[in-house]
Amino acid sequence: MKSLIIICLTLLSISLFAGESAKKIEQPRIQMAILLDTSNSMDGLINQAKSQLWKIVNEFATSKKDGVSPRVEVALFEYGKSTLSVESGYVRMIVPLTDDLDKISEELFALKTMGGDEYCGKVIKDAVDHLSWSKSDKDLKLIFIAGNEPFDQGKTSYKTSCKDAISKSIIVNTIHCGPYDEGVKTFWKDGADIADGKYVNIDSNYVQKYIEAPQDKEIARLGQEINKTYIGYGRSSKAAMARQEAQDSNAAGVSNESMVQRSVFKSKSQYSNSSWDLVDAKKSGKDVSKMSEEELPEEMKKMDKKEREVYVEKKKGERESIQKKIDELSKEREKYLAKKRAEEDKKDKNTLDTAIIDVVHVLGARKGYKFSK
User: DSSP code of 78?
Assistant: First the structure.
């Protein structure tokens, strides 16, 4: 009887320990909705968003909460364009919260500006009401709204929208594209204050100076090379792989810095494509051996179950090797750039990326997130 009790207690301890371990490894989330004014005067803002997306999400990827890297989800809205419907309040949700950041990039590059009415209260309300926000107070939930017209326009009160956001632990941060004092007078700061957020102003037409680092060409080359390790499966794989290539081209077309930042992000765990790539899918728990032949790419259809497993493992190993090289080069690059920036006489003006990154550092620290940079 005594032995039986000891065994039961031992099993209970193991069970409790396993439960505690499961809690510890629960992945935190950073959720961010980007609300962009796409009226006529905002071409510079859109260009900054296109060129700086990968730098922004890379910063999130360096963070950890309780030693665990977060899942990064981004949503995209546009507002203030005359081609959007009057009924919608000139607001459109382009992409809901997703970790498919290639999709976010694709849609950013498709954005066009046109004159209209900018209703900040309405777009904030739509973001709060229509996105699948985390229910956990441990996750970091952020809205970034950028524009240049008065914040109080439209029938939907920005005060009500911001109060509703913070009541759900969604922090609203405002980015005024113009002088700081003008943003204060036109209620951009008030909107952020109501929702426990930060108010910043940027020069949306400013183009940041690119500092070339010795590692840039090799990082960009490896960013292309890593594409060869993806194994597309299912009906959506061809479109997804084409999107991946297209966003490489878009990043390269904007600037060398954008292409390097995208390549670096492709080395992070947050760049996950489990919905169409077998390597990422297997990491997420998909059993390759049980997949139907119709789901598999042509090169795997003639393989037996063992050969399929070996093939996926081979591609996984190749990818991890490339990711490791990119990570090492990225760290060397950061050291080089830190030294170069220290030598600069003038600090770059505030732009979309610096505004978002600075805010996330402050608000992330409140939630226990730590950043490596």
Answer: E
Give the Cα separation of 276 and 286 in Å (integer): 11
Quick: pLDDT tens for 272-297: 999 999 999 999 888 888 888 889 99
| CA distances, 113 to each of 77, 96, 121, 150, 251 (Å) | 13, 21, 20, 18, 20
* Count of positions (residues) in the chain: 373
What are the residue ranges of CATH 3.40.50.410 in the chain? 27-206+350-371
Pick one of 3.40.50.300, 3.10.450.50, 3.40.50.1240, 3.40.50.410 as the CATH number of 27-206+350-371. 3.40.50.410
Of the candidates 360, 280, 279, 295, the residue with the CA atom closest to the CA atom of residue 55: 360
Helix spans in the chain (H): 2-24, 43-61, 101-110, 120-130, 158-167, 180-185, 188-194, 216-225, 237-254, 256-265, 278-283, 298-301, 305-343, 352-366
Give burial (CB, 10 Å; 0-12/13-18/19+) of 205: middle
Phi, psi of 237 (to 5 degrees): -65, -40
For residue 311, give the nearest of 322, 298, 325 by alpha carbon.
Answer: 298
pLDDT digits (tens, 9 = 90+) for 182-195: 999 999 999 999 99
